[in-house]
Amino acid sequence: MVEELLKNYDNVCTLRVRMPISSDLTNPRNFITKISRYEKVVDIPNSMTVLDELLPISIEMAKRNLTGIYNFTNPGCISHNQILEMYRDYIDPKFTWKNFNLEEQAKVIIAPRSNNELDTTKLKTEFPELLCIKDSLIKYVFEPNRKTIVKA
User: Fold this and answer.
1) Rounded CA gap, 17 and 150, in Å?
2) For the chain, is the Cβ count within 10 Å smaller at the N or the C terminus?
3) Dihedral of the CA atoms 25, 46, 50, 122 (nearest 10)?
4) Do strands 13-16 and 68-71 pair parallel, antiparallel, or not at all (unpaired)?
């Protein structure tokens, strides 16, 4: 594993990104874009990375010469349903989705998925202003993309 090799060097900083999310909701690699296009989703909480908030932090980490391994996610975790509810509330009030369980998902995916909450204590100690995942999604993704509903 590359991470094992890199930790032998004292001048390397490894950032563990999970389920990257950006404010560009048209980007097909954006986690929100992906799950909003799925026919069904599994509703499991996970750690996630809001790139609009964390990428500037990566530059600051380089300036500070930080090294080691960092779980590069926003603190806390959020479920697929919570994200899709926010998508519906901020972006598309007519948006709907269906859920399926892990067993049903396993039958239709090519590679198994991992679900977890990463410990962000090390990152949060260095950057105490880092927002929790839900607040970061609102500030950096959903508020800037909010659709104004005009009532006649």
Assistant:
1) 38
2) C
3) -170
4) parallel
Which of the four CATH numbers 2.40.110.10, 1.20.120.1200, 3.90.870.10, 3.40.50.720 does domain 2-145 have? 3.40.50.720
Which has more confidence, 42 or 150? 42
Write the burial class of residue 77 (CB in 10 Å: 0-12 exposed, 13-18 middle, 19+ buried): buried
**Backbone torsion region of residue 54, taken as left when φ is above 0, otherwise alpha when ψ lies between -120 and 50, otherwise beta:** alpha
Whole-number Cα distances in Å, 130 to 47, 58, 84, 124, 127: 14, 12, 23, 6, 6
pLDDT in tens, 13-34: 999 999 999 999 999 999 999 9
State how far the Cα of 52 lies from the Cα of 63, in Å rounded to an integer: 18
- The pLDDT tens digits of the residues spanning 86-107 come to 999 999 999 999 998 767 666 6
Residues 6+ apart with CB under 8 A from 93: 149
Name 17's Cβ contacts closer than 8 Å, sequence gap at least 6.
49, 54, 72, 73
